[in-house]
Amino acid sequence: MEADAKPIHRRLMTFRYVAERYVREVLPTKALSTREGDRLMLAKLYAFFDDPPAPLDEIKPINIRQYLDWRVRSTVDALRAGGKEVKGTEGQVRANREKALFSHIWNKAREWGYTDQPNPCAGIKGYRERPRDVYIEDDEYRLIHKYARQPLRDAMDLAYLTGQRPSDVLQMSECDISDGCLIIRQKKTKVKLRISVSGRLKALLARIAHQKIDHNPRSFFLVVNERGRRVGLKSIQSMFVEARQAAGLFEPKKYQFRDLRAKAGTDKAEDMGDIRAAQKQLGHSCVTTTERYMRNRRGEKVEPTR
Predict the structure, then answer these.
(1) Does domain 138-294 have CATH number 3.40.1350.10?
(2) Where is the Tyr recombinase domain positioned along the sequence (predicted)?
(3) pTM of the entire structure?
(4) For helices 138-147 and 233-246, what crossing angle results, to 10°?
(5) Neighbour-count burial for 169-189, b at 16+ CB within 10 Å, e otherwise
(6) Partner residues linked to 50 by β-bridges
């Protein structure tokens, strides 16, 4: 029985051969941002496992460990060569993500009959990652908002009031408003949400509609630039950096646009006194995911002894 329509001798089967089939058949099923990220990670994996080409059945667990070490070392060396200060841990998170992608590709190779060898990633520990614990305080939010361009203000307010990921915020359109709700289909998880158009969100949507009155042509997207054109994620992130610096907040790792989603969830849980309210708004399938996502963001609120 043939496992593949175009069988290839095991000795000639390489990581790249399998990875290229993965790109053709699996990558298109993923979200655009995930596809872009996977392609960048594959470039790194090719640099190690395809120079020279590594026969699939000859890749062993020790090679995965070697890849992780090489990935961090090359990142640190590149930063030093550019005159930047390094801690020696740069590249660890990316190395972990690339190991996960390699593992998925290997499992596909087993499915497709290219190898019957066990996954070499099994038992190889990645680098320890510290969960992100950033919470943007209200005064910090207001300060960044004050120095932000109008497109960023709209994006910040939408991100905070809806609790959605940056890519989903920038995808929001007037066409998504129906029966008094803002309809959202999360790109990453495909979860569907209906957020009631009320309170501050209702006022925000009215403000955005008013701003767009004189735009010609008029875009249906909610977040547009001063000329009425749709704004991309990189543009919003760049605006956020500019506003953050103008506000005198110079810690790039502490203040990022993506942290508004965690702020929304944290504030929702505290206001409602129930983390399940945040779970629903964020679109998490189970409350443990929400707890893990929000853990240490602001610290547990407790009463004094007396």
Answers:
(1) no
(2) 129-306
(3) 0.77
(4) 100
(5) bbbbeeebbeeeebebebbee
(6) 53
